[in-house]
Design brief:
By secondary structure, the chain is of the alpha+beta class. Helix content is about 15%, strand content about 30%. The longest helix has 13 residues. The chain has 4 helices and 16 strands. The termini are far apart. A hairpin with a 1-residue loop joins strand 1 and strand 2. Strands 3-4-7-6 form a 4-stranded antiparallel sheet, with no helix packed on it. A 4-stranded antiparallel sheet has the order 5-8-9-10, with no helix packed on it. It has a 4-stranded mixed sheet with strand order 12-15-16-13.
Length: about 270
C-alpha cells in the first residue's frame, strides 16, 4: 500500500512526509513542525505571534484537487492520519453492493475500513450513520462524509445496523423463581407447599437458563423444556423449595428441592 503524503501550508510552501510503518495515529489538532527556512510574516516581524489554526479537514496545496489523506474528523467519523500497511487484504472493489438505506446509531466506537479492507478510522459512539450498500457477505458501506480525503466509501459490517428485537425479553433469577412458585400454586389437588429454605431430607433437581429470549413464547418454550425433562419431579411431590441465582458464567442456575411423594390412587 502506498505511503500517505501530507501537503500542507506552513507559512511558506513545504512538504511533510508521514512515515507509517504499521501504526495509525489521529492527527486532528496535531501541530505541524515549523520549517527552518520559513519566511517570517509581517505580523511576526512586528513581534506578534500568528495563531495556529486547525481544520476539520486537511487539504492539499490546490484546493480544487483532492489531497492525499492526512487525517480528519467530523461530528460522526474519525479517519486516521496513517493506517497499517499490513493485515488481511479484502478487495471491496470486487464486491457487488446492493443499494439500501439502513440508518443506525453507533452504540460504541465502531471501526471503519478502506476499499482494501484495512482499518482506517472509526464511527464515533452515538453517531448516526446510513449504510447505502450491502454486499452478499457481511460487509456494508456508506459514502465518506469528509471532503478532501481519499476515500469514496467507508466500509463496516452489516451487524452494526442490527435493530434490537422489540419483543425481546430479559428475565432475572427472581423472575424465574416466582414463575416456578406460581406454577406450583396452580397444580391440581393436593395443594403444594413451598417452603423458604430446603431441608436436609429433600432431593434436588437443577437446571440452567439464559437471561434473554426472543419473546415470551421463546422463554416459555425453554422454561417448559427444562421442567418437563423430569415431569415426575415437578408434579408428583407435596413439598418444594426453590432457589434461583446467577451462575458464574452468566446463566441463571435454578434448584428445585422436593420431598413427600404423593400417593395417587387410580
Amino acid at each position: 500500500m502506498k505511503k500517505r503524503i501530507v501537503n500542507a501550508f506552513v507559512t511558506g510552501l513545504m512538504v511533510v512526509s508521514l512515515a507509517g510503518c504499521g501504526t495509525k495515529t489521529e492527527v486532528t489538532g496535531q501541530e505541524i513542525p515549523e520549517s527552518g527556512s520559513a519566511v517570517e510574516s509581517e505580523a511576526e516581524a512586528d513581534g506578534s505571534v500568528a495563531d495556529e489554526s486547525t481544520s476539520e479537514e486537511v487539504i492539499g496545496d490546490n484546493a480544487d484537487e483532492p489531497s492525499d489523506f492526512a487525517g480528519a474528523e467530523n461530528e460522526s467519523i474519525v479517519l486516521y492520519a496513517e493506517i497499517a500497511e499490513y493485515g488481511e487484504y479484502v478487495p471491496m472493489h470486487e464486491m457487488s453492493f446492493e443499494s439500501v438505506s439502513n440508518t443506525f446509531t453507533a452504540n460504541k466506537d465502531l471501526p471503519v475500513y478502506s476499499v482494501d479492507g484495512i482499518e482506517c478510522g472509526y464511527i464515533k459512539k452515538g453517531s448516526t450513520i446510513t449504510f447505502t450498500g450491502y454486499a452478499s457477505n457481511a460487509w456494508a458501506r456508506f459514502e465518506n462524509p469528509i471532503a478532501g480525503t481519499d476515500y469514496d466509501y467507508l466500509y463496516g459490517f452489516k451487524e452494526y445496523a442490527d435493530v434490537p428485537n422489540t419483543n425481546q425479553i430479559t428475565i432475572t433469577p427472581s423472575d424465574l423463581k416466582q414463575r416456578i412458585i406460581d406454577n406450583l400454586a396452580i397444580l391440581e389437588e393436593p395443594t403444594r407447599v413451598v417452603i423458604d429454605t430446603p431441608t436436609d431430607d429433600m432431593d434436588v433437581y437443577e437446571f440452567r437458563m439464559d437471561y434473554t429470549y426472543d419473546d415470551e413464547l421463546d422463554y416459555t418454550f425453554w422454561y417448559e423444556k427444562n421442567l418437563k425433562s423430569d415431569t415426575r419431579i415437578f408434579y408428583d411431590y407435596m413439598t418444594y423449595s426453590v432457589e434461583c441465582e446467577e451462575d458464574t458464567d452468566g446463566w441463571i442456575i435454578c434448584k428445585i428441592y422436593y420431598k413427600d411423594l404423593i400417593d395417587r390412587q387410580y
